[in-house]
Amino acid sequence: MYTKAFKHLKKDPVMNFLIEKYHDKISLDSYRSKNYALSLSNFIIDQQISFKAAITIKKRFAVVIQNLSYVEILNLDNDKIQSIGISFRKVEYIKNVFSYFIENEKRFIDLDAEKMKKELISIKGIGKWTTEMFLMFELGKPDIFSKGDIALINSVKKNYKMNDLDNKKLEDLIKSWSPYNSTASLLLWKSIEDKLFFN
Fold first, then answer.
1. C-beta separation of 108 from 123 below 8 A
2. Is residue 149 flagged as an active site residue?
3. Which of 14, 24, 127, 130 has the CB geometry, 3.0–4.6 Å to 198, for a possible disulfide?
4. Domain count, the chain
């Protein structure tokens, strides 16, 4: 799956190092569910919390909503959802997502990626980062890099020895990785998760 991406990215010494370490340890499949409302809810849970905490909370959330329809999820008591470690604001955002898909699921599936972006941003609680994660993981778009992802930016700084990383330097890297920014992102995330960096 990643053969072409690896071939392109290996021209970059940092990426070459990360590919050697992680070529068989990255995947875009961890979120792909074909249930767009659930996928987006999981990305909302992911926002601004640690990777390990998010895994735990998403497992609890899956149990809470197991076998429930979207309408039944909307009717769940907010306190019940909040009690598994989800903030009240995120509970509201998650319900906004399920409310949207009750009305628009069939229409949404037929939209192209650009129109999907606009639709998602219109849902309160869905921002640019969540949309980028959805396009990357759920839809498998190959050329996504999220400038708003703190872990990604920190990984770039550490691997490329750029404490003074500015937008121009970042843009140059993003252009050099294109059209395989999604794969580059997976490698950079894995690097910072394991605290293993190019030197």
1. no
2. yes
3. 14
4. 2
Residue 7 within a domain: yes
Q: Are residues 131 and 164 in the same domain?
A: no
Q: From the CA atom positions of the chain, what is the Rg in Å? A: 18
CB atoms within 10 A of CB 176: 14
Buried-exposed string 39-75: b where 16+ CB fall within 10 A, e elsewhere: bbbbbbbbbeeeeeebeebbeebeeebeeeebeebee
- Output the six-digit token pair for 7: 């071939």
Last residue of a domain, one of 138, 156, 183: 138
Q: Which domain holds residue 103?
A: 36-138
Question: Which residues are within 8 A (CB) of 44 and not within 5 positions of it... i.e. 6 or more apart?
Answer: 90, 93, 94, 97, 125, 126, 130
Q: Which amino acid is at 105?
A: E
* pLDDT tens figures, 129-181: 999 999 999 999 999 999 999 999 999 999 999 999 999 999 999 999 999 99
Q: Is 199 part of a structural domain of the chain?
A: no
| Cα 176 to Cα 86: distance, rounded to the nearest angstrom | 38
CATH number of the domain that 183 lies in? 1.10.1670.40
Q: Which of 12, 79, 149, 172 is catalytic?
A: 149
CA distance 24 to 9: 15
